[in-house]
Amino acid sequence: MEQKAEQDQDTSYVTMPDILQEQEELEETSRAVLGGSDEKNCTYTKGYVGRQALYACLTCVPEARGIESKRSGICLACSLQCHDNHELLELYTKRHFRCDCGGPRMPEVKCKLEPRKEEANDRNRYDQNFSGLYCVCHRPYPDPDDDVQDEMVQCVVCEDWYHMRHLDLDEPKSSKDYGEMVCGGCMEANPFLQNYVGKIEDPNKTTLDDTVQVDVTGLDESNVTTAAATATADAAADDDDAEQDTAGPSEPKQRRLDDSKAPAGEEPQKQKEEPAVSLDICTKPVVVADGEKAYKKGAAFWVEGWRKYLCQCKACVELYKKHGVEYLLDEQDTVKYYEDVGKQKHGSNGSAYEQGMQMLGQLDRVTQVDMLTEYNRMTSRLREFLDQFVTNQQVVTRDDINEFFAKLNKERRESGSSGPPPYFCR
């Protein structure tokens, strides 16, 4: 019993399944973030890539910490080939960005992959993340002066990262309860998004609760009708409008509000006879004053798939363009889509956890305990080694890590032991 009590108090030991599970989570994150990016070729020639993993090099441009005009970003391949052993800031992913390595923003750097980068990347956006700062508190991550455990989430509009406690939420949110977040500042800058708050509750539904549709064709603005009534009137006026179900690239197709299948026994062609919703019909929800689901100032959390409910009438599309958020209508813009592509690109037969557990099951008890004991010993020594760099505020290089393991192997050889003493059951 005393031995069991000591184990309960000791939270430093781990089990082999714990190690494998942690490794699987790390590999999953790596596949998600890096899998969709090119690790061998600089992305500069591809222009402003829709979404890619980015880094900021503070070794090459140390002024970026304090001078906004000095901020710059490099792609994954350049971080590996041109900035190895440098102090890099991991920026996760950013949209519509072109690599700065060796360009006008980094004139002292020569890109090994794409030496000719004379054109300035005027369309790149450089927020405070490129200086190593985040959230409305403008602090680094991890913050050496903050010991509060808090989750950070990324705004899908400005792409900055925020502490949950700094989003002025009435109640805590779980990462399982939402797909994307728009911070309070971006909600104020794009007020039309406020109309959708509380109106999108179930991604499997094909209708918006409490939604009315407004005729924005230039007629009387007070004339509010349902989509079905207006679409029927349009069809009666001109049968050729049935061909408007397909729109060009500049005019996205308006989503039908009722995509349900025809009832049993009904002829399939009858569903085809339903008139398409006109692009002149706005489906943006109308805000009811003092309504139960009215927008409250602050960040808004959205269920997965919420973007498909955004109105795509001509007026709303122009509104998105005016505010520079037309990417909200592009399903390939989402981080989830990018991560899914990365996971599929690096798919394998079975996860690392499953493979590890299968191999572990083939080992005898003594070997399992030996491996676990050696692992705990190594991680303890590595933690002590890295703590020195944290205390002295130094950057850990690849040479430092290689030196650490070389020293560890030397100690094992000098001790004349290939591992810990045998384990005996009591």
TrEMBL record:
Pathway: Protein modification; protein ubiquitination
Basic and acidic residues biased stretches: 252-261
GO cellular component: cytoplasm
Alphabetic keyword roster: Isopeptide bond, Metal-binding, Phosphoprotein, Transferase, Ubl conjugation, Ubl conjugation pathway, Zinc, Zinc-finger
Residue ranges of domain UBR-type in the record: 40-116
Zinc fingers (UBR-type) by residue: 40-116
InterPro entries documented for this protein: UBR7, UBR7-like_UBR-box, Znf_FYVE_PHD, Znf_RING/FYVE/PHD, Znf_UBR
Gene Ontology molecular functions: ubiquitin protein ligase activity; zinc ion binding
One Pfam family cited in the UniProt record for this chain: zf-UBR
Signal peptide location: none
Enzyme Commission designation: 2.3.2.27
Region of interest (Disordered), residue spans: 230-277
Superkingdom classification of source: Eukaryota
Gene3D superfamilies tied to this protein: Zinc/RING finger domain, C3HC4 (zinc finger)
Cross-referenced PROSITE patterns: ZF_UBR (PS51157)
The reaction(s) this protein catalyses: S-ubiquitinyl-[E2 ubiquitin-conjugating enzyme]-L-cysteine + [acceptor protein]-L-lysine = [E2 ubiquitin-conjugating enzyme]-L-cysteine + N(6)-ubiquitinyl-[acceptor protein]-L-lysine
Catalytic class of the enzyme: transferase
Function noted in UniProt: E3 ubiquitin-protein ligase which is a component of the N-end rule pathway. Recognizes and binds to proteins bearing specific N-terminal residues that are destabilizing according to the N-end rule, leading to their ubiquitination and subsequent degradation.
Record's protein name: Putative E3 ubiquitin-protein ligase UBR7
